[in-house]
Design brief:
The chain is built from 2 helices and no strands. It is mainly alpha-helical. Keywords: Membrane, Transmembrane, Transmembrane helix.
Length: 80
């Protein structure tokens, strides 16, 4: 092969390598974006669950404060 052919082949190989690297990078970025969205959704669901449980606990405490007082009295009296 002549020098010109080697140069052309080298340039072609460099373009193929760069194109392949770009495709791999684009696929990786899409994967990262998809995973981040999934993680965000899961975290939001967990946060919503924590808020829901906390609100239910607060509501139960507000609905029956006497139960807590009675329990505290029994604990102090040692009759639990």
């Amino acid at each position: 092969m002549t020098d010109v052919q080697w140069i052309c082949l080298t340039i072609l190989a460099a373009f193929i390598f760069a194109w392949s690297a770009w495709i791999i990078w684009a696929v990786w970025q899409a994967s990262q974006k998809k995973q981040a969205a999934a993680d965000s959704t899961e975290e939001k669901q967990e946060d919503d669950l924590v808020v829901d449980v906390t609100q239910k606990m607060a509501q139960a405490q507000a609905d029956a404060p006497a139960d807590d007082a009675a329990l505290q009295a029994r604990l102090k009296a040692g009759t639990l």
